[in-house]
Write a structure and sequence with these properties.
Blueprint: H1 2-8, E1 27-33, H2 39-45, E2 54-63, H3 68-84, E3 93-101, H4 108-125, E4 132-135, E5 141-142, H5 146-155, E6 162-167, H6 177-200, E7 213-216, H7 217-222, H8 233-244, E8 248-256, H9 269-279, E9 285-287, H10 290-300, H11 310-315, H12 319-328, H13 330-339, H14 344-354, H15 357-365, E10 370-372, H16 373-382, H17 393-401
Helix pairs in contact: 6-9, 6-10, 6-16, 6-17, 13-14
Length: 405
């Protein structure tokens, strides 16, 4: 409770919700919403039988410089939610009007933070620091018993501080065959990267998707809450949580993210799909699995860096990786890691705080050898002793969906 109370005393945390709450509240689902007239369909679907003691916070948001049509859409959406939520619901819904947010910060990160801070306050008010805050997006759909599966996943693992959820883009909702191929390639790429991190032994072998995670309230507070990034807020937040200890994974709750080809963020799924579609590309190129082999060498030899001289250790690294580590400032950073490491385990934690997911991502993205994603996946699977069931993008995607994460 200490972390939660202290976090909520910080001036930048968001205001709470005045609505009454139940003492046995277990789960709060936070849904940012920007001009999503279909939100009622999602909220109705979430009124699922067997749902835990839960509630939903919808953050209807726009920036101070939002165009008039977005404002009108949000006003209608807010009114619709409040009218619909006025009925007796098995899972209560609270709609927050986050209008005219500062243009400098307005975006999905700030909207998610407003809702998650409000959820944290709800749990603090009933003395439940271990309450679950789940994150979803308004344009997603979810599996049956979604809320119940999240609750059961945490209830079965009391020490789990945060978890990712299963995801699968609904390819049958794509506009045409080229859109469908783009969406399948993009999801296959995401899963390829997570599998590559696992091959390398890195502690962030998961896919960071803002609509596919949940966190305990005290862990949320301990890591200073959600950030206000306009894009990539999920990546940075989940990687902070993963530094403490590995994220869990809830295999029985599935999210079906939107496949639409538009983006409200500087990068992400919609932008990537739209760019590939418009450019008329045939192959979705990704870095060769060799990059993950190189990172695996780093992971295997990491304990040696605690006691070895820097230069001999770097000499034993693949040349491209050694150069990247030097340019990233390893020689300056490692001295501090050693001073604050009482054991190899502590040293590894310090190292992966420095060599975080962003540095690893940039290293892989700089790889000069690129392959079509389906070829890269087939090669990577062999490292796990797995035969590819298909050479086709969708066939491989179905195979990877059956693997963890």
């Amino acid at each position: 409770m200490h972390h939660l109370t202290r976090y909520l005393q910080l001036p930048q945390t968001q205001a709470g919700i005045a609505a009454p709450l139940r003492d046995d509240l277990e789960l709060v689902l936070v849904v940012p919403c920007l001009c999503e007239p279909g939100i009622i369909e999602l909220l109705a679907h979430l009124q699922q039988p067997g749902a835990p003691r839960a509630e939903i916070i919808v953050v209807v948001n726009h920036a101070e410089d939002a165009p008039a049509d977005v404002r009108r859409c949000n006003e209608r959406t807010l009114a619709d939610i409040r009218q619909w939520a006025g009925a007796a619901l098995s899972v209560p819904v609270h709609a927050l009007a986050a209008f005219d947010l500062p243009a400098r910060h307005a975006g999905v990160g700030l909207a998610r933070k407003i809702g998650m801070d409000a959820a944290a306050r709800r749990f603090a008010a009933v003395g439940r620091p271990d309450g679950i805050i789940a994150s979803l997006d308004a344009d997603c759909r979810v599996s049956e018993h979604y809320l119940q599966a999240i609750w059961q996943g945490f209830a079965g693992q009391p020490a789990m501080h945060a978890a990712t959820l299963v995801y699968a883009h609904p390819l049958d909702r794509c506009e045409d065959a080229r859109h469908r191929r783009a969406m399948a390639c993009y999801e296959l790429f995401l899963r390829y990267m997570a599998l590559g991190w696992r091959r390398a032994g890195l502690p962030y072998a998961f896919t960071a998707i803002g609509s596919c995670f949940a966190v305990r309230a005290n862990a949320y507070a301990r890591h200073h809450g959600m950030n206000r990034r306009k894009a990539g807020e999920d990546f940075y937040f989940l990687h902070k949580l993963a530094r403490e200890k590995p994220l869990g994974h809830i295999a029985d709750a599935c999210v079906f993210p939107s496949v639409r080809m538009r983006s409200r963020t500087p990068f992400g799924t919609g932008q990537a799909i739209a760019d590939w579609y418009a450019q008329g590309k045939e192959a979705w190129l990704v870095a060769s699995p060799q990059c993950f082999d190189e990172l695996a060498v780093l992971h295997r030899r990491l304990d040696d860096l605690l006691s070895m001289e820097d230069v001999p250790w770097l000499d034993g690294m693949p040349a491209r990786l050694a150069g990247y580590l030097q340019r990233a400032g390893l020689l300056q950073a490692v001295a501090g890691m050693r001073r604050n490491a009482a054991s190899p385990a502590t040293f590894r934690k310090h190292f992966y705080t420095w060599f975080d997911g962003l540095k690893a991502w940039r290293y892989v993205q700089q790889c000069q050898v690129q392959l079509p994603v389906e070829q890269a996946v087939c090669r990577l699977l062999t490292h796990f002793g797995i035969d590819a069931v298909s050479r086709d993008v969708e066939g491989l995607l179905q195979q990877l969906r059956r693997l963890k994460n």
